[in-house]
Structures are given as structure tokens and as C-alpha cells.
Amino acid sequence: MNVSFKKSRGLLVCAALAVTLTGVVAAGTAVAAARGAKPLADRAPAGFAELPPGPLPHPGESRAFTATYRNDTPARRTVAPQLLVLSPDAGPFLAPSDVRLERRAADGHWEDVPVRTTTGTLYTGLAGAHRTLPPGATLTEVYRLTVAGAGAGTRAGGTVRPRVALYG
């Protein structure tokens, strides 16, 4: 085969350009995919491990609630403990000011936990509660719920439901 130097140089330049463009397109696709991926804090859980519920404490009283979850999978698992405080079906609805929620820290002292609300339910946020458990590890989170004085939402009772959000 007799190919002139000018033609072979042109073919080499075209081949190099094609390889470069392929790499740029592949890199651009990877960057776009990474940008589209939501951080864990923005993703919805894949499910929940529902734990046994308990009654809302009487006004002026406190009660501890524990959220415990064991990672029995062979892989690391991201979880987030959550506490739901449900108002009675017939109302009146609880307000965040009706309760004080605390979490026991690793050193044993109690830390306030912000409570959010949606109609009839108070809940703890998931974003700051994520933990990654290795296989066989157990998460135990202890909450203390204190009900304020006899506010409108505290007179009719309610239910406290600990649960653990499961990701992945």
C-alpha cells in the first residue's frame, strides 16, 4: 500500500482527534451524571424499619423512647433514626411548642432535637441523623420526650413512633 506522508499525517491527526473527542464526551457524560446525583441528605429513604409505638406522655411528664436497628446485611448500610409524634385522629393537632425532644449524646448528656411539623404529626428531620453501619453493627438512639403543660394538643393523647430510615 502506497500512502503519501501528507495523507498518513492527516489520517493520524484525524485518529488522534477522534480519540480525544471520545474521551471528552465520556468525561462530560460522567460529570453530568455526577452533577445529577443527589447528595444523601436530599434523597428519600428506600424504606423504614418501624419500631414499637408508645403513648404520648401526660402533660408535664417525660418518657424515653429508643430507636434500635441492627444491620443484618452483608454490606455497609446508611440509616437515620427518626421519631414521629402523632396527634389523635380526631385532633387537636400537636404543635412543636407542646413538646420538648432531646437525644442522649455519646457522653450521656441530653441535647435538644428540633421538631418539625406537618398536619397532625411532629417529626425529627433525617438530614443530620445519617449514620453508616458496618455489617453486624447496631444503632441505638435514645430520645426523651417531655410534654409541656396542658396545651390544646396535649390533652387528648397521641402516639410516639420511633423508626429508622433505610437508604440504599
Structure, described:
By secondary structure, the protein is of the alpha+beta class. It has two domains: 1-37; 43-167, Jelly Rolls (Sandwich), CATH 2.60.120. Helices cover 19% and strands 37% of the residues. The protein is built from one helix and eleven strands. Strands 1, 2, 4, 7, 8, 9 and 11 form a seven-stranded antiparallel sheet that branches. A hairpin with a 2-residue loop joins strand 7 and strand 8 (121-123). The protein is globular, with a radius of gyration of 27 Å.
Please name the defining characteristics of this protein:
Jelly Rolls, 2 domains, 4-stranded antiparallel beta sheet, alpha+beta, 11 strands
Write the layout of secondary structure elements.
Layout: H1 5-36, E1 47-50, E2 54-55, E3 62-70, E4 77-86, E5 99-104, E6 110-112, E7 116-118, E8 121-123, E9 131-133, E10 138-147, E11 159-167
Antiparallel strand pairs: 1-11, 2-11, 3-10, 4-8, 4-9, 4-11, 5-6, 5-10, 7-8
